[in-house]
Design goal:
Bound molecules: flavin-adenine dinucleotide
CATH architecture of the largest domain: 3-Layer(bba) Sandwich
Oligomer: single chain
CATH topology of the largest domain: FAD/NAD(P)-binding domain
Radius of gyration: 22 Å
Shape: globular
CATH superfamily of the largest domain: FAD/NAD(P)-binding domain
Number of strands: 19
Number of helices: 15
Distance between the termini: 33 Å
Length: 504
């Protein structure tokens, strides 16, 4: 008889684990509290306007191709993925605009136009980070169940490249002298909700990955990826129960035995996989915990949060697909938001204008404009319900002053705001920290919650809260590691089941 697996949450992590395990013959059911799949990588519909809720940058699409391939599918039969060139527009406080590209010659001509002294430094940086990437990437693809996993030859070889005592900012200072150039290679830590002054030096790999491998768009939005995953799950006979909230993980001694859903029904299963936000799930779905107690979870470091404005506007703006607009003192701002203080000024606003490349998201002549402002998580105790209208206005004033969207307020037909409080309340995200537990080295690898639960046997974790971390490429890796561990435990076969190439 097929072994039964219950998955809590239909975010990309839960969906990809389901695809992989269904393809290996397991009986999988996903329970999702929302009426639709996708979680943070879901779709927001406001009348005729279609928005991505969260991710808009698809990096390393080859990782997702690989998860589909391992599940017996070709991702390109489901979605259309297009690389963007230029990657984005960076608009600095003095109005300078920088358009990097995966085409090195184009990026160099931009650098020569703006900061000619940095051209050779850029080439050296890219070359050095290619070397680091080739070594460090492998470490992310291993499970870290035991402290001895750090002794694997691949990890030891990569260790000097990780520069564990250094910060990203420190590394950039060794290469670049121009502040704007440094900012252009550092702001990417916003993707993991950290400050470049605090983020480990290894995260310079994010800008390397962008410049080398590119940023991709999916026609219809990145939410189409999770819709495609759900389709594969259903094609394999997997069941997805939406609008079904899991209330508890059932246990038998120290073993997971199933789940209880909001109707009170108990569903027995051989294995449980938790995809819901890790710290939320531990504190709400499992009462008896040894390691991740309420006190422990409270003490941990979390990423920043985001204030989101989704605007359906009856106009199209002639601006690029991705726009990062800087203002004020970036260091002070990052310190404030990551140390959970109300920022005194606005220093980074991201504007997503997918209508620049995709006509499927709004009626002709209209566009869905998505605005993201990094803000502190709810440890800052900001009353966003009260602050919401004032902050909204500050954001609109900022973009009116700094961009071509001067008249945007007059063109808004549809609008939705998500604040850190909403992320916590409506999306079940602990502290509203949308990029999960922070990615400090003391919360990475073995020190991050393991893919195989440390609380219960027959229970596994998948998604941004476990190894290797937040962001779609990491979540692809986590889905393979988690599924692999479950199969190994189930079959007693210590060999890698999916694809040896994925591991060392
Ligand atoms: C604003 C924003 C922008 C981002 N931008 C990018 C980007 O450009 N590129 C990138 O790669 N990454 C980006 N990310 C990160 C990325 O979205 C996340 O890392 C990823 O979606 C997390 O996936 P997950 O599977 O861990 O969890 P989630 O997507 O959060 O899925 C968890 C699911 O569990 C469900 N759930 C919760 N509680 C229960 C319960 N009790 N019962 C049943 N179901 C439950 C939730 O409803 C949700 O569907 C962004 C995130 C945000 C928020």
């Amino acid at each position: 008889m097929k072994k039964k697996i219950s998955i809590i949450g239909a975010g990309p992590g839960g969906l990809m684990a389901a695809m992989l395990l269904l393809s290996k013959g397991y009986d999988v059911a996903i329970y999702e509290k929302e009426p639709a799949v996708g979680g943070r990588t879901g779709r927001l519909l406001l009348d005729d306007y279609i928005f991505d809720i969260g991710p808009t940058f698809l990096m390393l699409p080859q990782y997702m191709e690989e998860v589909f391939r391992l599940s017996g599918r070709n991702i390109h039969d489901y979605v259309e993925i297009t690389p963007l060139d230029p990657l984005y527009r960076l608009k600095f406080e003095d109005g300078t605009e920088f358009y990097p590209s995966t085409n090195t010659q184009k990026t160099l001509s931009e650098i020569n136009r703006l900061f000619p002294e940095e051209a050779a430094n850029y080439l050296r940086f890219q070359q050095d980070d290619q070397y680091r990437f080739n070594r460090i990437e492998r470490c992310f693809k291993l499970p870290y169940d035991s402290i001895y996993d750090f002794l694997r030859p691949g990890f030891i070889e990569a260790l000097p490249q990780m520069d564990i005592m250094g910060s990203l900012r420190g590394r950039l200072e060794k290469y670049f002298t121009n502040e704007k150039m440094r900012l252009a290679m550092a702001f990417q830590t916003k993707y993991i909700g950290m400050s470049p002054w605090h983020a480990p030096s290894a995260y310079s790999l994010i800008s390397f990955i962008e410049h080398h491998w590119g940023i991709h768009h999916v026609t219809g939005g990145l939410n189409q990826l999770t819709l495609a995953m759900a389709k594969v799950v259903q094609e394999y006979g997997g069941r997805i129960y939406t609008a079904t909230t899991v209330k508890e993980i059932l246990t038998k001694g120290k073993k997971a035995a199933g789940i209880v859903i909001d109707s009170g029904e108990k569903i027995n299963s051989d294995y449980v996989i938790v995809n819901a936000d890790f710290a939320y799930a531990m504190s709400n779905l499992l009462t008896d915990r040894r390691k991740y107690t309420d006190k422990d979870l409270k003490m941990r470091e979390y990423s920043c949060s985001t204030f989101m404005l989704y605007l359906g506007v009856n106009k199209q703006y002639d601006i690029p697909h991705h726009n990062l607009i800087f203002g004020g003192d970036f260091k002070d701002y990052m310190d404030e938001i990551t140390m959970t203080r109300r920022p005194s000024s606005m220093s980074l606003v991201y504007i997503h204008n997918p209508a620049a490349t995709d006509t499927t998201l709004a009626p002709q002549g209209k566009s869905p404009i998505y605005i993201l402002v990094p803000v502190p998580n709810n440890k800052a105790s900001i009353d966003w319900d009260t602050l919401r209208p004032k902050f909204r206005q500050e954001v609109l004033d900022f973009i009116a002053a700094k961009t071509e969207l001067k008249d945007i307020e007059r063109h808004i037909e549809q609008e939705r705001i998500i604040t850190p409080q909403d992320w916590q309340r409506d999306f079940n995200i602990y502290n509203g920290a949308v990029f999960n537990l922070s990615h400090d080295l003391n919360q990475m690898f073995y020190f991050r919650p393991h893919n195989r639960s440390e609380e219960l046997s027959n229970c596994y974790i998948v998604g941004g809260g476990t190894h290797p971390g937040s962001g779609l490429p990491n979540i692809c890796i986590s889905s393979v590691i988690t599924s692999e561990l479950l199969i190994r435990d189930d079959t007693g076969d210590p060999r890698w089941g999916f694809n040896k190439k994925v591991y060392l």
